[in-house]
Amino acid sequence: MNKLEILKKRMALNTSESKLLFLKRTGDEGETYVSKVLSERLEVQPLVLEDFLFEIDGSECQIDFLVMFEYECLLIEVKHYEGDFISGDEYITKVDSKKKYPNPLAQLARATDRLEKLFMRENIRMKIVALVIYTHPCFYLYHARVDSRIVFLSQMRKFVGELNQKPCRIGERHKKIFERLNSLRLETSAYEKKIVYEYEDLKKCITCAKCDGEMERRSTGDRKFIYCNMCGVREKLYDAILRNVAELEYLFPDKELTLTLVLEWVGGCITRKFLTKILLSRYELIKKGRSSYYIKTS
């Protein structure tokens, strides 16, 4: 889950929050594409660690994909830039706006250096091969040098073919390395800007998973469904309730999940009896009289 994605449905974001959400969404598009390529188009089955954030020598490093084959680890940085860019040593510059972005190859070099240090610290002996994948169909890089560390969208078929030729006999050693790396993953960055929000300021309703609109039950038709007022999508009430309750838990992990709280969060669109039935399908009721609350079943 992403806090800004959830909060956007229930409050107005400020300029910096909206920009951060936009960057997150565009980045996710590229990473989703690469994730799909790795899971659906490879004939071999390497171990894949996605969105790997770790700490080494007091500094953090984030790697989009770490793909472990038999003899090497592939470090992949994904960029979903749109438009025409001019390549430079330290920056790539967008032609129309003249805006400069750090050259991904420089970022790649720093990430490789930090991963090598991590491997040395953890006594992991495996070759690291690093590359950047540009995933947007409307991206072009002028003055790009011939570089094996860059893969453009038009080269993806060739790239997949090369991956399928890599030795990929995954044994216990590889699995132990993968598990160790996964255990070192940081869940959140210490430098991530804290998003300020209060429960009382958020809109109370069931929100649409497709368009962020407000959903309502209709007086006619099947009452087991709920409909979005903006895009008209239909969703099972049971699924919509649980989806919105999960978002409530994510935003406010310290709040006790009482029936009254959940009923208010979903806008009171359901009876207490029906809501209890839905919650008991996924949660356990901790009975404390009027202070009873629900916890997620394992």
What would you note in describing this structure?
- The chain is α+β, with helices and mostly antiparallel strands and 298 residues long.
- It is 34% helix and 25% strand.
- The chain has 8 helices and 15 strands.
- The protein has helices spanning 3-8, 15-40, 104-121, 156-164, 172-183, 237-251, 259-265, 272-280; strands at residues 47-56, 59-68, 72-79, 83-87, 91-94, 100-102, 127-134, 139-142, 150-151, 206-207, 214-216, 225-228, 234-236, 283-286, 293-296.
- A 5-stranded mixed sheet has the order 1-2-3-7-9, sandwiched between helices. The protein has a 4-stranded mixed sheet with strand order 6-5-4-8.
- Strand 11 (214-216) and strand 12 form a beta hairpin.
- The longest helix has 26 residues, at 15-40.
- The chain is globular.
- The model has no long low-confidence stretch (mean pLDDT 92).
What is this structure, in a nutshell?
With 298 residues, the chain is an alpha+beta fold.
Q: What's the structural blueprint in terms of helices and strands?
A:
Elements lengths: L2 H6 L6 H26 L6 E10 L2 E10 L3 E8 L3 E5 L3 E4 L5 E3 L1 H18 L5 E8 L4 E4 L7 E2 L4 H9 L7 H12 L22 E2 L6 E3 L8 E4 L5 E3 H15 L7 H7 L6 H9 L2 E4 L6 E4 L2
Parallel strand pairs: 3-7, 4-8, 7-9
Antiparallel strand pairs: 1-2, 2-3, 4-5, 5-6, 10-11, 11-12, 12-13, 14-15
